[in-house]
Amino acid sequence: MSYEQLAYVYDQLMADAPYDSWIEFLCKEMDRFQAPGRRVLDLACGTGELSIRLLKQGFEVTGVDMSEDMLAVAAEKAGEEGLSFPLFQQDMSQLDGLPSYDIVTIFCDSLNYLESSEAVKQTFSGIYRHLNPNGLLLFDVHSTYQMDHVFLDQTFTWNEDKIAYIWNSFQGEEPYSIEHDLTFFVLDENSGQYNRIEEFHKQRTYSVHDIEHWLVTAGFDVLSITADFTGESPEATSQRIFFTCRKK
């Protein structure tokens, strides 16, 4: 997984992503569980779309992402809005040298890009160290149902004037894992030709029980587990699972 070329068309591909719903979830949970402040660490911030929206709502935001290109796009977008915020290139499982925050977010199933349970556990431990007392961790992951019944052996396509893709999903080597083989065709407006971009991504998820156990082991109180932006408990066919946790 590189995101080196994909970073520059990512926002076009994510134009319909539910950013407003993620922010609504964050605001509701921080009020419901009394977050100690509005200082947010946005892990896997990508092109900064969520971070910038939070900045506009008065949050103090820091963004972290593994991709240098994603961070470059985020900085450029913020500058175009007359905004700026700290951006760091780090692996979320190896957080280091950052201050403490009131809220940490990992949205858009970004935790599923960690390829081992140990990396997930290290991420939870690192977040715990970087949270203020009573600080909140909010994140979502793909459900095991999503991996085994929605993604598995499926082909997804999308075609618009300036960009198209073919997305094939296959069973990964580990339980509840998927390998995504993506091919994008992006219009170069200067030449009138389409550039081909190929990306290979892996995602892996875990049972709700396992994730909850790792959170508790890391020192968190698990305050809420819901599904699909509904605020209701997960069901057998739920596709996106949300966790709200508090540092003890």
TrEMBL record:
Pfam families: Methyltransf_25 (PF13649). Residues 40-135 form the Methyltransferase domain. One of its GO terms (biological process) is methylation. Keywords: Methyltransferase, Transferase. GO terms for molecular function: methyltransferase activity. This is Class I SAM-dependent methyltransferase. It comes from Siminovitchia acidinfaciens.
